[in-house]
Amino acid sequence: MAPRLAVAAAAVLLAGGCASLGSSPDATPAGSSSSTSPGTPSSSPTATGTPVDPDTPTSWGPTVGELEEAQELVSTWTPDRLAGQVIVGRYHGTDPSVPAQMVKDLHLAGMSVTADNVTDRDQVLATTQAIADASAADGRDFPPVIGVDQEGGYVSHLRGIATDFPHFQSAGLAVQSDARLGRRVTRAAALATGLELRDLGFTWVFAPVADVTIGAADPTIGARSPSMDPAVASQAVGAAIKGYDDAGIVSTVKHFPGHGTATQDSHDTLPVVDSTVAEIEEHDLPPFESAIKHAAPAVMLSHLDLTAIAPGIPASMAPPVYSMLRDDLGFEGVTITDSLGMGAVAGRPKPALQALEAGADLLLMPVDNATTHQIIVDAITSGEISRERVEEAAARVVAVQMWQARVAAQRPVPLDVVEKAQAASADLESAAY
């Protein structure tokens, strides 16, 4: 693994006072052969003078043309609209009109739906449709982010509504038992999950978990992790990413750069991780590198205090951690924070703005949507944050939603999606045990 020079340089700056469905599971990742920068306009020549085909895929899903279209679109937006497009909101209760009104009034990118927001299938369908209608009424011709934690196992917010899948640990066990079969059933499970979620109106899934657990000392991830072995976890994560891509849903590999070694729960406090950079490279990064190789569209940043990289600052708000992800690992897609309502960060001043300045593209579930929106609007207007940074973030979000709409249109949900999901769940569990 190459030395993380950018991380080391960024850490020095920070310490000095810097603020702030059916193909083979081994198939080549879509878009992975492209050497074109996703930010290169289709009308601009490459280094060799050859114009870039707008249909050229980026390394994370959207085409160069889709990204360029998104960039042009957001460049015309007011600060009010621009600020909304980088927030995925939270809400309370089960009334579909509540999240819909927030999306329309604050121009939010979308909403995260949790177990507390759902009652039954019909109510979930009404909720996701209301959010989609509100986004369309707000003048957007691309779908909103409608996301849910549906990892399998106990982190499944649609329990009793969508098919129950085993913990993601099962994917690692299946890979460890028979690598080829394990990758196949893991990809099939992700495909079935994604299609069933799309059938319920979702466009994002906050999965797969790429954290490499350390076992009993890990209180947060545990069986959510595919394995204690980075190589096994890498295979399971890569297969899952391809399955979600096959389904036309935006997956979210998490929690960068790896929550599996934390011995405290970031839902309650900011865990301190004293791993060296070399230990993080060896133990935690391989599954994320696999995800990127397999065209992961989005990566979720953890709320961890990584003392070797950005001491005292949550990873989700630390520029050196984003530098590690983008400069060292080469990720070009959407970066999203873990929930900003978690105990690790909720008490910090302006956590959403800190994350956006550091490099986040999407701010997940701030404590107060309206207050956060206004903070970002004010920061853009005053110049506290550059408009360029916010446009960059919003354009990536819009582009990946254009990709999601295009792929979903090409891959309709089968009528027997529930039966297929139940079979895929049984196959994964059988391969694991």
UniProtKB/TrEMBL annotation:
<feature type="region of interest" description="Disordered">
    <location>
        <begin position="23"/>
        <end position="63"/>
    </location>
</feature>
<dbReference type="InterPro" id="IPR036962">
    <property type="entry name" value="Glyco_hydro_3_N_sf"/>
</dbReference>
<feature type="signal peptide">
    <location>
        <begin position="1"/>
        <end position="21"/>
    </location>
</feature>
<dbReference type="GO" id="GO:0004563">
    <property type="term" value="F:beta-N-acetylhexosaminidase activity"/>
</dbReference>
<dbReference type="InterPro" id="IPR019800">
    <property type="entry name" value="Glyco_hydro_3_AS"/>
</dbReference>
<dbReference type="GO" id="GO:0009254">
    <property type="term" value="P:peptidoglycan turnover"/>
</dbReference>
<dbReference type="InterPro" id="IPR017853">
    <property type="entry name" value="GH"/>
</dbReference>
<protein>
    <recommendedName>
        <fullName>beta-N-acetylhexosaminidase</fullName>
        <ecNumber>3.2.1.52</ecNumber>
    </recommendedName>
</protein>
<comment type="similarity">
    <text>Belongs to the glycosyl hydrolase 3 family.</text>
</comment>
<feature type="domain" description="Glycoside hydrolase family 3 N-terminal">
    <location>
        <begin position="98"/>
        <end position="399"/>
    </location>
</feature>
<dbReference type="GO" id="GO:0005975">
    <property type="term" value="P:carbohydrate metabolic process"/>
</dbReference>
<dbReference type="InterPro" id="IPR001764">
    <property type="entry name" value="Glyco_hydro_3_N"/>
</dbReference>
<keyword id="KW-0378">Hydrolase</keyword>
<keyword id="KW-0732">Signal</keyword>
<dbReference type="Pfam" id="PF00933">
    <property type="entry name" value="Glyco_hydro_3"/>
</dbReference>
<dbReference type="InterPro" id="IPR050226">
    <property type="entry name" value="NagZ_Beta-hexosaminidase"/>
</dbReference>
<feature type="compositionally biased region" description="Low complexity">
    <location>
        <begin position="23"/>
        <end position="51"/>
    </location>
</feature>
<keyword id="KW-0326">Glycosidase</keyword>
